[in-house]
């Protein structure tokens, strides 16, 4: 009995020891699993709380890099700009900035010109990059696209330079002519001649200032704030009246027609100025004893009907290389001829801005030696739309007879020219 009791006691002690050892081993294993390893620290970085939310609402392109220069977080804008490819930062200067910041903890900023990916052109992408440490192991890169801002700044500089040059010409001429008048005070004929020249330069200066004001107004104002239904035939009549004297002087016939009772929704003053500029250009750049036609028609489109007003001349035409730039401010196809006709180079720029601000466009068809057709395409006033069919007719290419002495205003029904591209 004593032997059996001793064996049982030994077995019980052994079982207790085994259980204690097993429990200690389990606890040791559990603690070892919870302990972070060097590998997990390096490959699974965690963004500080709230950083992910902040990066998602930033307008700038954002990239977060870890200790191994791998991308932990990148915004969609960063991928769109081509900053991140294959999980790596693809711009070497930015990558070097990130390494330097990780080393010394200093915030760095630089502006770079990057090639555009996939455009096939030499245009550069202007960006501003800022690098800052994010915690003890991560680096944050913010990239701002400055391309559009630089383009606007370049346009502003060119505009100021062009305005200065255009103002300098008539102002300088007025100064010289005034000195000539003073020197010729004893010669009435010379004074009269110089005074006439002064009036011409003063008129040119006034027109330039007025067109600068008009251009500024159409760029900054919302034309639809004072929008109203505007009758196309009234706009055409006003545009023809504006150029009647010059057309009469050159024996140019002006003819209007097309679909009747059309209406455009927009600012009457701006629409009249735009169409007036087109008709005035057609008269100024047409040879004597030719014809200028203004035709209006309705064009059906999926988003709503449009009104097309086409102004056709039999002038000198426009070359292909000039057609791409004629709507730029102060650009002239023939500078010498523009100065002779008093042109400022702003008329077509005003037409372009008026068309765009009214939800339309202006296009041009032209061939050197065969004339030009400018087409103003604007939304129709839906509340006053008349589905009646317009009358058809023809606008022939015959010139005005040599004995014509006045510009004629006719409203014979004529279709819009079919030479539009």
Automatic annotation (TrEMBL):
Region Disordered, residue ranges: 384-421
Membrane topology, from the record: Multi-pass membrane protein
Keyword Cytoplasm: no
Cellular compartments per GO CC: plasma membrane
Bilayer-crossing regions: 6-26
Keyword Transmembrane helix: yes
Feature: compositional bias, Low complexity: 401-413
SUPFAM superfamilies hit by this protein: ATPase domain of HSP90 chaperone/DNA topoisomerase II/histidine kinase (SSF55874), Homodimeric domain of signal transducing histidine kinase (SSF47384)
Residue ranges of domain Histidine kinase in the record: 162-382
Top-level taxonomic group: Bacteria
Major location (coarse): membrane
One GO term of the biological process aspect: cellular response to phosphate starvation
Cited Pfam families: HATPase_c, HisKA
Compartments (UniProt record): Cell membrane
GO MF terms, alphabetically ordered: ATP binding; phosphoprotein phosphatase activity; phosphorelay sensor kinase activity
Signal peptide: none
EC number(s) reported in the record: 2.7.13.3
Enzyme class: transferase
Keywords from the UniProt entry: ATP-binding, Cell membrane, Kinase, Membrane, Nucleotide-binding, Phosphoprotein, Transferase, Transmembrane, Transmembrane helix, Two-component regulatory system
Catalytic activity: ATP + protein L-histidine = ADP + protein N-phospho-L-histidine
Protein name per UniProt: Sensor-like histidine kinase SenX3
